[in-house]
Amino acid sequence: MLLFFLFSSWNPFSGGGGESAGRRSQFPPKSLTSKKFSHSAQTSATPRHPIDPLTVGEIHRVRSILSSYEPFLGQFPAIQSMTIDEPDKSRVLGWQSGDPLPPRKAFVIGLLDNQSHLVTIDLESGRVETHEISSGSGYPMLTMEDVAAAVDAAVSYPGLEVSAAARGLSVANLSCISPSPGWFGPEEEGKRLLKVLCYSKQGTPNFYMRPLEGLVMTVDVDRREVIKFSDTGRGIPIPGGANTDYRFHPGNDPPEMNPINPISMEQPQGPSFTVTDGHLVEWANWEFHLKADQRAGFIVSRVVVRDSETGDRRSVMYKGFPSELFVPYMDVDEAWYFKSYMDAGEFGMGATAMPLVPLNDCPRNAHYMDGVFVSADGRPFIQPNMICLFERYAGDSAWRHTELTVSAGELREARAKVTLVARMASSVGNYDYTIDWEFQTDGLIKITVALSGMLMVKATVHDNMNQIENQEETGPMVSENVIGVVHDHFITFHLDMDVDGPNNTFVKVNLVKEENLEGKTPRKSYLKPVRHVAKTEEDARVKLSLYNPSEFHVVNPSRRSRLGNPSGYKVVPEANAASLLDHSDPPQLRSAFTNNQIWVTPYNRSEQWAGGLLTYQSHGDDTLDVWSHRYVTWLY
Amino acid sequence: MLLFFLFSSWNPFSGGGGESAGRRSQFPPKSLTSKKFSHSAQTSATPRHPIDPLTVGEIHRVRSILSSYEPFLGQFPAIQSMTIDEPDKSRVLGWQSGDPLPPRKAFVIGLLDNQSHLVTIDLESGRVETHEISSGSGYPMLTMEDVAAAVDAAVSYPGLEVSAAARGLSVANLSCISPSPGWFGPEEEGKRLLKVLCYSKQGTPNFYMRPLEGLVMTVDVDRREVIKFSDTGRGIPIPGGANTDYRFHPGNDPPEMNPINPISMEQPQGPSFTVTDGHLVEWANWEFHLKADQRAGFIVSRVVVRDSETGDRRSVMYKGFPSELFVPYMDVDEAWYFKSYMDAGEFGMGATAMPLVPLNDCPRNAHYMDGVFVSADGRPFIQPNMICLFERYAGDSAWRHTELTVSAGELREARAKVTLVARMASSVGNYDYTIDWEFQTDGLIKITVALSGMLMVKATVHDNMNQIENQEETGPMVSENVIGVVHDHFITFHLDMDVDGPNNTFVKVNLVKEENLEGKTPRKSYLKPVRHVAKTEEDARVKLSLYNPSEFHVVNPSRRSRLGNPSGYKVVPEANAASLLDHSDPPQLRSAFTNNQIWVTPYNRSEQWAGGLLTYQSHGDDTLDVWSHRYVTWLY
User: What sequence ranges are listed for the domain Copper amine oxidase N2-terminal (chains A, B) (predicted)?
Assistant: First the structure.
């Protein structure tokens, strides 16, 4: 059973502290080249598990096979994606440590002459097994090389020099970023586009705060040329960017606060978890497979918990990962309307995950894992230290009870809470998403998404609120000439739940008010739980409502406790948000997975990405919403 | 400005892990006596701040004044509450360290001849300043002595021996608890009642799991007699209680999991906070007054943050505390319908807070504070180690950003997150509430309520789910013959916000969909923030809605930033729940503060307790809902 589970937050106004708004895009990482081909003992190892990611050696092998593949002779495609083609679930579930690995296969998405080639390759035989050219809308995830090429094209465009000069700058003073264009109808079809926006980098590394407002260049990525140049903001000053350098310097003026003494999480005997063969994590009563992924960031697979009574290994989840993000901005100006990002499918949560900073991103004793990824030429590169794994003790109790009773005397029982956290952080342009999977010994798995980084801001002629009292602005003024534009962040997780096996059922337990109790009780009402077993996908599309609440259970009716209860997991949505955009609005069409907070679909190996496999400039014809509405699908 | 802010959760089904349901009541703490009069250096000190709680010496003084007060000569009232009568806010705000203290006064609630006497006393002059006899409904918070007396009366009731014998037990085998009766109309008025329920304590300290189902004794607390005895459950077996001993023994069989190595939070130079004069906490850029309270548990006052630019001390909140809890169970049987607890006003969150367990409830380097409370005879007693204060480092980053840019090279910036936590844990019978106030250096204050402890369960004749398929049960079967009855926990916080001073305004920023954009933009919709300044209390009654979302700002229009924005705080409700009971249902009437998730009322010194000052058996005539609907009150 697949469960798509939406997390979200909206950040219209950054009140008096805490999180604030903003985001977007990626500058060519020139230093990337030096990292290619770097091998580490950890990442160059032989694969040991059927779902282990492709190794450095395997990536070279795939490239070599593709190079001699007849259709690509003389015109090697740009490799937009190359991953392990995981064996069928039944095969993986049947495999045990020590068994020979199932055949290793790669799934490649290559781009050639504006066409997306979907190719599967058997590594042993060296044969291309399937080769399909996509006929639907959308392009594959961009490569870093695409981004670099588009920015290069934009910065050499003569109009940019003029626009920069009109603001007293030269192109050398600019940092340019390349957000995706979304999709807004026929005139943008048939070519891969990027929008390029520029900022003054003078005086601050936080160039995001210094936009050349109204300047937007539409670049044809493959032709490497600017096809549309628009500059409507020459009258808008570039915000000053004072005090926006975020880099830590020991010599910085101390902030107006008392110093905080050193504090750390210490484990004199070291951590209690082990990582075997690079990917298999074991801790307390948990076991799972953890790997980096260029698109999803990281993937947690084969999650197993040990039964506290029998010691049996019991399956919880086959696979879980961030499936897609949606970040629509609420400003319809020419330089803003298109900002409706789908970070996983457009840029990749792994591709944008820089190395974690020891002691600041993750505590002492953290174990780090690299990502082994693929660049556009089909060669491997290492994303070092992109995942960390650590035990957390936050000073909390896992369970407690105190009691004064005559019989038992004073009872004071408390257990300190220690958990295991797997973490990564993607910097998709200005915004940083930190994603945690946290495992508790009581069986709970908690997913947390934290936002950090910088705002994506809009410049304005105004530098004080009293000038804009009756004017329309699309967000609050956060500094002189700077508007923090209202936007949302939605992230949906793909959770392939296999609680005690694959045949799980989704149950909504609705709380219903019972009334008309006269004569039976002094109460006038109470709430009764009413179970609804979802029979079709439609039954399992959930819009959360505070005043019509339900619990959500994923149960296995074929595995009963001694009481006859099915085994199961409860899905608990915490703080959440809904997308209020028109369902026919192009950004909402493409990210229609945000139409509900929970969706349940029958297992389908091909339905991994809630925004579609080929997301870039897609028309919304391959989303979770489309799959779910295609026909009435019975969940059991 | 007062802001009442609701937290809640509902626990109908305990799914596959995590939190589960249950709760209630307090057995006479016989060991209490030994703690009376115990003095500690910390708690016997002279008061140093106008709002410091009464000291041991002051409590003795108040008792002595009351003993010679003419109306109480010869008939000393039972002291249900005795606290510092805080000076007027303006007086407290005007006071500075070193100034002489304003006159110390005590507010006493005494019970005499079934009447609640509200008395204020000036400690210096020794005079009773005001003396009022309550004419409204409701009684004061119970004392431990009330609870003990009621249970004593019940266990000596002859019918109990018969009921016990019918189940093969004697009274000596029982543990009895005394939940509050709620209020359900005229026949329960005019006398203070407790319901007494009994459990078999054989074989487990967790007697809550072994109810004598259907047995309920209604006790007149003041006459100390059982006035109603009901036993409808003799045919229902007492659940076995196997494996319910929750006490930790080093010799316990190890659970089926790998051991977890020691882990702790270490501060080689010690903690960075200071506590001056017993109550004044200073840490990083924060300063606040913290004290224990017999009813609220603890109170955070005079919260001040230092301005990061100027170093000025800026007011954030005058006073914050848990104002009331509401825990309605969803079962209308004779032995269950009344379970609709109001823990703060009925039993007291401080009165039920046992000492915290070092290293398991709070980490190493925590600082502990005692509560100085008052027993029914007016004498002081110490609740030792009932609050802890510690710095938390959970392995997270406070802020991070990484970036690859040509101009700046690779930037990897992250700051470890360290916060300050003030914690207490109340064990209101079976259920434990841990309440945290967490302060972040970026200005955020986060309140967290965690639930732990044991379920409040109902016995049933059934021991397997297959027997109850078509039968009505009011919750899931959690063990043989044990039903975990559906219930809610609502907790509302009283937040007297004084952001940069007292004249704050409440602003709802509603997100509204804008459509009909044809010709202006390729987008079909966007969301526009629309500000609604609350003019009356009615404007500020908030029912949260995912599909009609707002942000909630408390701003000070008279204090503007250099940009002209008012200073302010954002109130962020996280996961929440609504009460779905009939508004005319007696439990809902009494806890009508759960009719909305947020209420804002103008400052009124007497409106502290959202369920009313005299909550016990109240009729709902003195709740936040009543105050707010009394007349149209302008907020500014």
Answer: 49-130
- Condensed to tens digits (0 to 9), the pLDDT of residues B492-515 reads 999 999 999 998 999 999 999 999
Confidence at residue A256, expressed as pLDDT on a 0 to 100 scale: 80
What are the tens digits of pLDDT across the range A449-481? 999 999 999 999 999 988 887 667 899 999 999
Cβ contact B493:B320 at 8 Å? yes
Q: In what order do the strands lie in the sheet with B115-122?
A: B78-84, B105-112, B115-122, B127-133
CATH domain B46-133 topology: Nuclear Transport Factor 2; Chain: A, (3.10.450)
Tell which A residues from 221 to 240 touch B, by Cβ distance under 8 Å: none
H-run or E-run covering B333:
none
Q: Is A346 left (phi over 0), alpha (psi -120 to 50) or beta?
A: alpha
Identical fold between B2-26+277-455+487-629 and B144-231: no
**Tokens encoding B394:** 């959970």
pLDDT of residue A408: 55
Select which of A208, A431, A433, A569 is catalytic: A431
Q: What is the DSSP string of A331-385?
A: --STTTTT-EE-HHHHT-TTTT-PPP-BTTTB-TT-EEEEEEEE-TTS-EEEEEE
User: Tell me, what's the ipTM?
Assistant: 0.93
Position B329 confidence tier, pLDDT thresholds 50, 70, 90: very high
Among candidate residues A343, A432, A488, A496, the one labeled active-site is A343
Quick: pLDDT tens for B197-206: 999 999 999 9
> A155 to chain B: which residues are within 8 Å by CB?
none
Name chain B contacts of A408, Cβ cutoff 8 Å: 201, 205
8 Å CB contact of B395 and A309: no
Is B425 in contact with B435 (CB distance < 8 Å)? yes
Considering only CB atoms, which chain A residues are within 8 Å of B524?
581-582, 584-586
Q: Do A400 and B452 touch (CB under 8 A)?
A: yes
Architecture of domain B2-26+277-455+487-629: Distorted Sandwich (2.70)
DSSP assignment of A192-206 equals -EEEEEEEE-TT-S-
The answer on pLDDT for B138 being more than 90 is: yes
**Nearest in space to B484 (alpha carbons), one of B279, B331, B281:** B331
Residue A567 pLDDT > 50: yes
Q: Six-digit token pair at B87?
A: 């000076």
Q: Please confirm, yes or no, whether A157 is among the known catalytic residues.
A: no
What tens digit of pLDDT does each residue of B440-455 get? Answer: 999 999 999 999 999 9
Mean pLDDT of B113-130: 97
Query: Taking a contact as any Cβ pair under 8 Å apart, which residues of chain B between 118 and 137 contact chain A?
Result: none
For A571, phi and psi rounded to 5 degrees?
-100, 120
- Confidence band (pLDDT; 50, 70, 90) for A323? very high
Tell me if chain A has a CB within 8 Å of the CB of B551: yes
Cross-chain Cβ contact B551/A12 below 8 Å: yes
Of A10, A257, A430, Cβ closest to residue B284 = A257
Q: What is the pLDDT of residue B410?
A: 83
pLDDT at B23 over 80: no
Task: Determine how many CB atoms are found less than 10 A away from the CB of residue A19.
Answer: 17
- Most B CBs within 10 A among A306, A513, A563, A582, hence the mutation to make, goes to A563
Q: How many CB atoms lie within 10 A of CB B239?
A: 24
Burial of B170 (0-12, 13-18, 19+ CB in 10 A): exposed
Question: Would you tell me which residues 151-190 of chain A have a C-beta closer than 8 angstroms to some C-beta of chain B?
Answer: 175, 184-185
Shortest distance between the Cα of A446 and any Cα of chain B, in A, equals 10
| 563-622 in chain A: CB under 8 A from chain B | 563-565, 567-570, 572-578, 580-582, 584-588, 597
